[in-house]
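Retro notes, item 3 of 5
We never archived the inputs for the hypoxanthine complex last cycle. Fixing that now. Sequence and ligand:
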Amino acid sequence: MSQTHPTDSVHPLDNPGVDPRAIAAEAAAVIADKTGVAQHDIALTLGSGWGQAASSIGELIAEFPASEVPGFSKPALEGHTGTIKSIKLPSGRHALIIGARTHFYEGHGVRRVVHSVRTAAATGAKIMVLTNGAGGLNPAWQPGTPVLIRDHINLTAASPLEGATFVDLTDLYSQRLRDVVQGLEPLDEGVYVQFRGPHYETPAEVKMAGIIGGDIVGMSTALEAIAAREAGMEILGLSLITNPAAGISPTPLNHEEVIAAGKAAETRLAALLARIVKEIA
Ligand code: HPA
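Structure as it came back at the time:
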C-alpha cells in the first residue's frame, strides 16, 4: 500500500497530512501513462454548455473516466460528463480536457474541488481554460451568450490555499488571453461572483452581487482559478449565460432549463472554443 493512501476508505485528499500536490503528481503520472503523452500544454475544464468542445479542437488521443485517476471523485451531476480526454491540436501540442468537475457545494472540501486544476498543472499545462454555465445580471444577455470573465468575487468564504500562502490575484484572468479572444470574437466581459450553492441565489443576493461589482453568478470557477494561479498557470475564464440571474427576469430558475440552454448553445460554443484554443495553445 502506498504511503499516501493509508486506508482504502479514506479519500487520499482528505488526509490532512498529505500534500494535495503529491496526489496531483500521481494523477498526472497516471494520465501520462494512459495517454502516452508525457506533457500536456493547455488544459480545459468544460462546464455546462461547453462539453462538445473537445471534439472540435483536435484529434482525440485518449479518453477515460476521471474516476480511474487518483484523487478524482465520481461525477455528481448530469451534464458533467466525468471523463478526461487528451487531444492533439493541429499545432502538434496537446490539450487535456477535464469533463469532471467537483463542486464546492458537494461538501467534500476545497482540495477535491481544485484537484483537477492541480492535476492539469502537474501534467505540464501552462494555460488553464475554465468554462462554466452561469446566471447573468445584464438583462441584455440572452441564454446562450458567452461572456469573458474579467475578474471574480469569491463569496464561498473558502480558499484552496492552505497555510500562509499569499498569492497575488491581480490579472488573475489574463489580460493577454482576453485580448487574444477579443481579437477573434468581441465578447462582453464581466466579473464572476461565486456563491456556494447548490441553491440558486435569491433576488436580493443577485442585487447585492451587482452592487459589489458582479455581472455573472455561478458556483464553480473562482476557487479553481485561485488554485490555477497558485500553480503558476495563465487563466482564461469563459461563462455561458444559461439564464438571467434570479430576479433579473420574472420567471423562476429551473435546473432543467439551465441544462437545456447549455445544450442549445453547445455547437456554437464548441466552434468558438476551437478557434480560441488554436490561437492560444
Ligand atoms: N446562479 C448560480 N449558478 C448558476 C446559475 C445561476 O443563476 N445558472 C447556472 N449556474
